[in-house]
Specification:
- This protein is α/β, with parallel strands linked by helices.
- It has three domains: 9-255, HUPs (Rossmann fold), CATH 3.40.50.620; 267-337 and 468-552, Ribosomal Protein L25, Chain P; 341-455, Ribosomal Protein L25, Chain P, CATH 2.40.240.10.
- It is built from 13 helices and 25 strands.
- Strands 10-23-24-25-21-22-11 form a seven-stranded mixed sheet, with helices on one face.
- The longest helix has 17 residues, at 40-56.
- The protein is elongated, with a radius of gyration of 31 Å.
- The model has no long low-confidence stretch (mean pLDDT 96).
- It binds one RNA strand through helix 5, strand 6, helix 12, strand 19 and helix 13.
RNA sequence: UGCCCGAUGGUGUAAUGGCAACACAGCAGAUUUUGAUUCUGUUAUUCUAGGUUCGAGUCCUAGUCGGGCAACCA
C-alpha cells in the first residue's frame, strides 16, 4: 500500500549497506535519557528506529542514556517503557548506559595509555576560556602535557573518590585549533558525588554523553545510530573515538526533529510547564507527551500513521497540527461508538406525545461498522436539545429548528416546531414541537424530507456528566521561535470544563473506550471519572463545515 | 563574520540526469437520518546567478536566506 512512497534517506542508506554486504542485518536503538516523559518528537524517533528494524528484519534495543545521576529517575524509566509499549513496539533488549560504566572506564584508561586523554585541573570557566571561539583557536594549558602514567594515577584517584566535584575532569587530547568546537579537547568524565538511580553510590565519576553514547552503540553492535540534527557536529568525535578505541564501527545518521504548530517539543520547556503548574502534570491532555495523548484519547495507530505521513528528512520542519488531527479522526471514525450528549441544553416538549412514558429506540453504534451493533436509547415527552440547534430567527441555510420548521431527532422522529417560551431577559427557555408519528427511524412512512438532523437526550433519563474541552496549548504557531518568554503565549482557553447531559448508555464508560458524541467530537473517559459521574476528555472535534460557512459571513 | 547542515505548492514529503507527484490544508460540487464520514473536481511548487549536459529540482561554483556549533546536559 505505502509502496508507492519513495524511501527516506535512511532507508536508502540501509538498503545500500545491505546490498553491498556491509551489513547482513541491521540494529538500531532508541536511547532516551530518563529525565522526562516521552513526547510526540520521541514518537517520531521510536517509529523510525523500531520501524526500520521491523522493515529490514533487524532488532532495536531500548537503551536508557543514564549518565547524569542528578536529573535522572526510575519514575521516568517506567513511564518511558510504558509509552514505547503502548505505541506498539517491542524492544529486543532493555539496556542502560550505566550497565557499561566499568567497560567505559576501561575505554578511558585505554585512551589515557595511548596518550589521547588527560586529566585537567582547570575550572570549567578556565576550560571554556581556553577553548577559544568558533573563529579563534583554543589554547593549551599546563595539564595537557601530563604523562600517561600521571594521568592514569590521577584518573584512578578520581574514581577512588579522592577529589571533590569539579576538581578535575578527564579530557580527550584532540585538536585545539579544530573548526569543530567539539574536537577541542572535550570533557569525557566528570566527578559527581551523586546517587545514581541504578548504580547507587558505586561511582563518583560519570562519563559524558560523547563518551557513553557512541561506545554503547558500539558495544551493542548498533549498525545505524539515528539521532537528531543537533548532533551533527558530534559525529566527528563519535567516529574519532570509535577509531582510537578500535571498537565496532557504529555509524551515526541525523534527521530533523519534529516540530508541531501551537505546541512546544522540548523536555526542558515541558518540565517547566509541569513544575510551574501551567498544566496539571506530564499527562495533562493538553501536553504533547505520549502519556497525555493517551489520556486525551489518541490511539497508537493514529500516532504511528502521523509519524509515517510526516516523513523523515534533514530539513527543519513545522508540521501543521491539523495533520495530527486528521490522522486521529480517520482512525476514531472507524472505531468510536456513537453516542448522543447535549452540551448546552434547552428543554423541548413534544406537545402531541401520546406514546408510552418511555419509548426505547435503537441507534447504531457505528455507521462505518455494522458489526458493532446497536444500543437502546430512551425517548420521552420531554427532551433536551442543543441550545444552538434552535433559532427564533434563523439565518439562511440554517437546517435546524426554528418556528414552523422541521428537523429529525436522530434515531427518533421528525418534529415540527410549534412554539417556544422566553424568560424576561429574552432567553429561550422551552421549545414546543409536535412529532410526526409515522416518521420513526427505521420505519418511516411519512414521506417527509428534512435537511436537518440533530442529537438529543431524554430529560427524564439524562445522565449528568462532565466534559473537558481542550484547545491548542499556545496561541502562536511557533512558540519556541517567537520573541520573549514562551510562557507568555500560552492559550488561556486551552481547557474548558462543562457539565453536560448524556444518554444513559454512557453510564458505564471505561477509560480507554472511544466515543464519538454525535456532531460534537471524539471523546474518551478520563480516569477522574467516578461511578455515576463520568468525565470525558475531548480528543478532537469533528470537522465542522457549518462553522466554516458561518465564519465566511 | 570561522566551520557544519539545509532550501521543491500554504504545510510536509517524493521524484536517485529524462513528463515535478502524493498527503494535509484551501476552494467548488455530489451523497448523507451526524452540516460527520464518503465521493468527484480544482487552485497552488523546484531560493538567486552562472556553469556542465542533447537534457538539471537533481551534478559543479558563487551568492542569498534559514538553522546549528564556544554545558563538568543529552
Amino acid at each position: 500500500m505505502s509502496e508507492e512512497k519513495g524511501l527516506n534517506f535512511i532507508e536508502e542508506i540501509i538498503e545500500a549497506d545491505l546490498q553491498s554486504g556491509k551489513h547482513t542485518s541491521i540494529a538500531t536503538r532508541f536511547p532516551p535519557e530518563p529525565n522526562g516523559y516521552l513526547h510526540l518528537g520521541h514518537a517520531k524517533s521510536i517509529c523510525l528506529n523500531f520501524g526500520l528494524a521491523l522493515k529490514y528484519g533487524g532488532k532495536t534495543n531500548l537503551r536508557f542514556d543514564d549518565t547524569n545521576p542528578i536529573t535522572e529517575d526510575t519514575e521516568y524509566v517506567e513511564s518511558i517503557k510504558a509509552d514505547v509499549r503502548w505505541l506498539g513496539f517491542n524492544w529486543s533488549e532493555e539496556l542502560y548506559a550505566s550497565d557499561y560504566f566499568e567497560q567505559l572506564y576501561g575505554f578511558a584508561e585505554k585512551l589515557i595509555e595511548k596518550g589521547l586523554a588527560y586529566v585537567d585541573d582547570s575550572t570549567s570557566e578556565q576550560i571554556a576560556e581556553e577553548k577559544g571561539t568558533p573563529t579563534q583557536a583554543g589554547k593549551s594549558n599546563q595539564y595537557r602535557q601530563r604523562s600517561p602514567e600521571e594521568n592514569l594515577m590521577l584518573f584512578r584517584g578520581m574514581r577512588a573518590g579522592k577529589f571533590k566535584d569539579h576538581e578535575k575532569v578527564l579530557r580527550v587530547k584532540g585538536d585545539l585549533a579544530s573548526p569543530n568546537m567539539l574536537m577541542r579537547d572535550p570533557v569525557i568524565y566528570r566527578i559527581k558525588h551523586a546517587h545514581h538511580h541504578r548504580t547507587g553510590d558505586a561511582w563518583c565519576i560519570y562519563p559524558m554523553y560523547d563518551f557513553a553514547h557512541g561506545q554503547s552503540d558500539s558495544i551493542e553492535k548498533i549498525t545505524h545510530s539515528i539521532c537528531t540534527l543537533e548532533f551533527v557536529p558530534h559525529r566527528e568525535l563519535y567516529d574519532w573515538l570509535i577509531k582510537h578505541l578500535e571498537i565496532f564501527p557504529s555509524r551515526q545518521y541525523e534527521f530533523a526533529r519534529l516540530n508541531v504548530t501551537y505546541t512546544v517539543m522540548s523536555k526542558r520547556k515541558l518540565l517547566q510547564l509541569v513544575q510551574e503548574k501551567f498544566v496539571n502534570g506530564w499527562d495533562d491532555p493538553r501536553m504533547p507527551t505520549i502519556s497525555a495523548m493517551r489520556r486525551r484519547g489518541f490511539t497508537p495507530e493514529s500516532i504511528r500513521d502521523f509519524c509515517d505521513k510526516i516523513g523523515v528528512a534533514r530539513r527543519e520542519n513545522l508540521i501543521d497540527v491539523g495533520l495530527l488531527e486528521f490522522c486521529v479522526r480517520e482512525h476514531l471514525n472507524r472505531i468510536a461508538s456513537r453516542r448522543m450528549v447535549v452540551f448546552d441544553p434547552i428543554r423541548v416538549v413534544v406537545q402531541n406525545w401520546n406514546g408510552p412514558d418511555t419509548e426505547m429506540l435503537s441507534g447504531e453504534n457505528n455507521p462505518e461498522n455494522p458489526d458493532v451493533g446497536h444500543r437502546n436509547i430512551p425517548f420521552s415527552k420531554e427532551i433536551f436539545i442543543e441550545r444552538e440547534d434552535f433559532m427564533e430567527e434563523p439565518p439562511k441555510k440554517y437546517f435546524r429548528l426554528s418556528p414552523g420548521q422541521m428537523v429529525r431527532l436522530k434515531h427518533a422522529y421528525i418534529v415540527k416546531c410549534t412554539g417556544f417560551k422566553k424568560d424576561d431577559a429574552g432567553n429561550v427557555t422551552e421549545v414546543h414541537v409536535e412529532y410526526i408519528k409515522e416518521s420513526r427511524s427505521g420505519s418511516d412512512t411519512s414521506g417527509l424530507q428534512v435537511k436537518g438532523v440533530i442529537h438529543w437526550v431524554s430529560a427524564a433519563h439524562a445522565l449528568n456528566a462532565e466534559v473537558r474541552l481542550y484547545d491548542r496549548l499556545f496561541r502562536v504557531e511557533d512558540p519556541s521561535t517567537i520573541e520573549g518568554d514562551f510562557r507568555e503565549h500560552l492559550n488561556p482557553d486551552s481547557l474548558r470544563i462543562q457539565k453536560v447531559m448524556a444518554e444513559p448508555s454512557l453510564a458505564g464508560a471505561q477509560p480507554g473506550e472511544k466515543f464519538q458524541f454525535l456532531r460534537m467530537g471524539y471523546f474518551t473517559p478520563d480516569p477522574d471519572s467516578t461511578p455515576g459521574s463520568p468525565v470525558f476528555n475531548r480528543t478532537v472535534t469533528l470537522r465542522d463545515a457549518w462553522a466554516k460557512e458561518q465564519k465566511k459571513q
